[in-house]
Design brief:
This protein is α/β, with parallel strands linked by helices and about 375 residues long. The chain has four domains: about 70 residues, Chorismate mutase (Chorismate Mutase Domain, subunit A), CATH 1.20.59; about 90 residues, Periplasmic binding protein-like II (D-Maltodextrin-Binding Protein, domain 2), CATH 3.40.190.10; about 80 residues, Periplasmic binding protein-like II (D-Maltodextrin-Binding Protein, domain 2, 3-Layer(aba) Sandwich); about 80 residues, 2-Layer Sandwich (Alpha-Beta Plaits), CATH 3.30.70.260. Helix content is about 40%, strand content about 25%. It is built from twelve helices and 15 strands. The strands form three sheets. Strands 1, 2, 3, 4, 5 and 11 form a six-stranded mixed beta sheet that branches. Strands 8-7-9-6-10 form a five-stranded mixed beta sheet. Strands 13-14-12-15 form a four-stranded antiparallel beta sheet, with helices on both faces. Helix 1 crosses helix 3 and helix 2 runs antiparallel to helix 3. The protein is globular. The mean pLDDT is about 90. This is Bifunctional chorismate mutase/prephenate dehydratase. One of its GO terms (biological process) is chorismate metabolic process. Keywords: Amino-acid biosynthesis, Aromatic amino acid biosynthesis, Cytoplasm, Isomerase, Lyase, Multifunctional enzyme, Phenylalanine biosynthesis. InterPro entries: ACT-like_dom_sf, ACT_dom, Chor_mutase/pphenate_deHydtase, Chorismate_II_sf, CM_dom_sf, CM_II_prokaryot, G/b/e-P-prot_chorismate_mutase, Preph_deHydtase. One of its GO terms (cellular component) is cytoplasm.
């Protein structure tokens, strides 16, 4: 039972919070006013670079660097992201295309990267996202590119080959899968619907808890939730957001086989991004089919002390057993060591295309 002194202390703490809230609110509005001045300066100069990925990445890096708790770095960055998102919307409202429908992990990646003040525009397929941004119907697009347990999203890599778009950023999202259904109990489920990668990521759980139940692959987990919303004998594997959006109860949580399950997404746009100080460069390379060519392709990076974070191969479709290589290089293409490595690779390659230099993802917040 509380005492008068406890009540007084609580009232005093709440008064302090109210005072701080007022000061925080005033500072946010002051920041928004300056953001509008920035927009006026850019408009007068004829500039169109209202969104600067490297600038926002630097702001968030500073938030994490100066954070002393008790909030985590991720929580502090998330709050600042939403403030920046609201201020940017005053300057230039942005549309971001993503793999829909509503409730997908890709939508969660959009909000993690851009904040909730953007207009998130769902598209039925990855190719539609590329086309929407290329046509100017969306300022940016967000697409999945790889999962930590199931590997690359081949459709995204294939689309990058012929696209005019650049990679402007990346998002790493810790993914937790949930089983959603109106069935009420696992024994009533006759069909499980999800994206093929999600079915694969939950394979062991499904084998154990729903053996023999039909598994149906669809274009996205949001689409899975939409399909089963009216079927009490079916279940979807999807994000928690899909449970809220489609009013589907969660029968089981965190059913992914790997607890550190993470999906990486790419942000696509038409602009070239300046160096942020913590960048990645992605390139597409085609080489001659000769002995030792792959070694000769990669050796310059080792000689220069430049890290190659990732290399993936995909059939080029030019002829049988001919491949394109997708390579991620740590650093920005304008950095002298990275530039020299790219030039050395290009000298050995049949074709080299810089897909983009962009700020590396900060944190891996869960959906």
């Amino acid at each position: 039972m509380s005492t008068p002194s406890d009540d007084d202390a609580l009232a005093d703490a709440r008064a302090q919070i109210d005072e701080l809230d007022q000061r925080i609110h005033a500072l946010i509005n002051e920041r928004a006013g300056i953001a509008l001045k920035v927009a006026e300066i850019k408009q007068a100069a004829g500039r169109t670079d209202f969104y600067r990925p490297e600038r926002e990445a630097q702001v968030l890096e500073r938030v994490a660097a100066r954070n002393e708790g008790p909030l985590s770095d991720e929580a502090a960055a998330r709050i600042m992201r939403e403030i920046m998102s609201a201020c940017l919307a005053l300057e230039k409202p942005m549309t971001v295309a993503y793999l829909g429908p509503e409730g997908t992990y890709t939508q969660a990646a959009v909000y993690k990267h851009f904040g909730h003040a953007v207009l998130a525009s769902p598209k039925p397929a990855i190719g539609d996202i590329f086309r929407d941004v290329e046509a100017g119907n969306a300022h940016f697009g967000v697409v999945p590119v790889e999962n930590s347990t199931e590997g690359v999203v081949t459709h995204t890599l294939d689309q990058l080959v012929g696209s005019r778009l650049s990679i402007c950023g990346e998002v790493a999202l810790a993914v937790h899968h949930h089983l959603l259904s109106h069935a009420g109990e696992l024994g009533s489920i006759k069909r499980v619907v999800a994206h093929a990668q999600s079915l694969a990521q939950c394979r062991n759980w499904l084998d154990t808890h729903l053996p023999g139940v039909v598994r149906e692959a669809v274009a996205s987990n949001g689409e899975a939730a939409r399909r089963v919303a009216g079927d009490a004998t079916a279940a979807a594997i999807a994000a928690r957001a899909a449970s809220d959006f489609y009013d589907l109860p969660i029968l089981a949580s965190n059913i992914e086989d790997e607890p550190n399950n993470t999906t990486r997404f790419l942000v696509l746009g038409t602009q070239q991004v300046a160096a942020s100080g913590n960048d990645m460069t992605s390139i597409l390379v085609s080489i001659r089919n000769r002995p030792g060519m792959l070694y000769r392709l990669l050796a310059p990076a080792a000689d220069a002390g430049v890290d190659l974070a990732r290399i993936e191969s995909r059939p080029s479709r030019r002829q049988a057993w001919d491949y394109n290589f997708f390579i991620d290089i740590e650093g920005h293409a304008d950095d002298a060591p990275v530039r020299r490595v790219i030039e050395s690779i290009e000298a050995e390659a049949v074709m080299l295309k810089i897909l983009g230099s962009y700020p590396r993802s900060i944190g891996r917040d869960a959906e």
